C-alpha cells in the first residue's frame, strides 16, 4: 500500500467495480427483484446500471491497454463511482436498497488510494450526497424525518471508515517504507560483503554439505581452481581434505598443489550452521606468504650466524689456503704431495665459496622490482651471458607470441638465471658434449601468470633427489656448494615468484620460474618487507 504503487491498487479496486457492475447488469437481465419494495423510477435505474457497467468496462479496457493512472484520475474515478451509487439508491428504494454498503466500500477504497485531505473530502462528499438523497423524499412527504437520522449515521460511518483506513494505511505504508529501507540496507551490506570477500587475499569457498559450491571469491579461484569456468563442485584435493577434516577436525590437513604452475595451498575448514543442514566455509591460504615470513626469520638468524662465520672461519681458512699455496711452490715436494696441496686449495676455495654464498644470502637487500617484458629481457640477458665468456654455448630462446610482463628485481633475476644457466650448460656438456640450453617464455592461460622454463639436455635428476634439491647444502656434485638452487629459490620467493623442478618425463632437467601476476604483486611486496 505504498505511495509508489497506487496504479496497482486502483487496478485491483477496478476489478471489484467491474464485478459489481456485471452483477447489477445481470440482475436486470434475469429480472431479479433483489431490492425490497418498488422502484422510484425503474427505467432510470436500469439506464444508470447500464451506463455504470459500460463505464467500468471502458476503464478496464484502458487499463488492459497499459494506460497508467494518476492520483487525479483515481480521485475523479472514485467520485464518479460515488455519484453512480447514489443514483442507484435514489432511483431504487433509497437507503433501504442496501446500496449504502457499496458507498462505504467506495469511500474506504478512495481513502486507501488517495490519502490525506482528499480522502476526507471523499467521505464528506458521500455524506452530503446521502443527506441530499433523503431530503427530496422528505420534502415530498414520501419518507419521514427518521431518514435524516439514518443518513447522519451513514455519514458518521463514512468518516469513521475514512479515518480508520487512513490510519491503518499510514501505518502499513510506514512499515512498508521501513521494510524497504531495511531491505535496501541489507542489499547494500550484502553488496559490500561481496566486494570485501571478492577482494580478500585469503581464498574463500562456501559449499553445502555435499561439496556443491555456493560462493567462491577471486583469490580462491586463482589459488586452487585451474579452470576458467565457474566451478560447481570442490576439486578432488579439497574434497579429500574436507573428508579428512570431518573425521578428525582437530588435525590440520597437509598443503596441496593444484597444478605445477601454482604455489602450495593450505585449506582450513569451518562449519556454518543453518536452520536446516549446514554449509562448509573453506579458507585457502597461499603458503608462499607463510614461507616468506619464515624466510625473514631465517635471514635474521643467518645474519647473526654469518657474522661469526666470517670472523671465526674465514681468517683461519685464509691462513690455510695461503700456507697451501706457499707449500705448493716448494721445490722439495714430489707429485703426490703436490696433489695433496691441490686438494687443500680446491676444498679451501669451496669452503670460501660457501661462506660467500651465505654472506650474500644474509646481506640480501629488499627487492627493487621493475616491470620487465620477458621476451626482450631474456634475449638481451642471453646475449650478454654468452658475450661474457661462454662463447661455445648455444642458448635457444623461445619467445611468447605476445608481450609477457612480470614484476621482478632485474639484478636478482640475473643472479638466478646465471646459476640456472651455469648448471644447465655444464650438465648438457657432460651428457651430450655440447653446451646447449633452451629457454621458453610462456603465460599460463588460467592464472595469466608468466613463467620461464630453463631446459637442459643433461642426465636429469634422480627421483630420490628431486625433493631435496632446494635444501641448503644439498648437492650431488663434489664441486658444488649446495646453495645455488636454495639461494635462487629464496630470491624467487622474495619477489613473490616460484622456482620449481618440473618432472615432465623428458630427458634432461626443466626448472620453471613462475612469476606473480604483475598487476597484483606490488602491495604484497611492500607488505612483505615491513
Characterise this structure.
Helix content is about 55%, strand content about 10%. With about 525 residues, the chain is of the alpha+beta class. It folds into 3 domains: about 5-185, no CATH class; about 200-285, Beta-Lactamase (2-Layer Sandwich), CATH 3.30.450.20; about 370-530, Heat Shock Protein 90 (2-Layer Sandwich), CATH 3.30.565.10. The strands form 3 sheets. It has a 5-stranded mixed sheet with strand order 6-8-9-11-10. A 4-stranded antiparallel sheet has the order 2-1-4-3. Strand 8 and strand 9 form a beta hairpin. Helix 10 (about 315-330) runs antiparallel to helix 11 (about 335-360). The radius of gyration is 45 Å and the shape is rod-shaped. The relative contact order is 0.05.
List the helices and strands and how they pair.
Layout: H1 6-29, H2 42-64, H3 71-91, H4 99-113, H5 117-139, H6 146-199, E1 203-208, E2 213-216, H7 218-224, H8 236-247, E3 265-273, E4 278-286, H9 287-312, H10 314-328, H11 335-362, E5 370-373, H12 374-387, E6 394-398, E7 405-408, H13 410-432, E8 436-443, E9 450-456, H14 484-494, E10 498-502, E11 510-514, H15 522-528
Parallel strand pairs: 6-8
Antiparallel strand pairs: 1-2, 1-4, 3-4, 5-7, 8-9, 9-11, 10-11
Helix pairs in contact: 1-2, 2-3, 3-4, 3-5, 4-5, 4-6, 5-6, 9-11, 10-11, 13-14
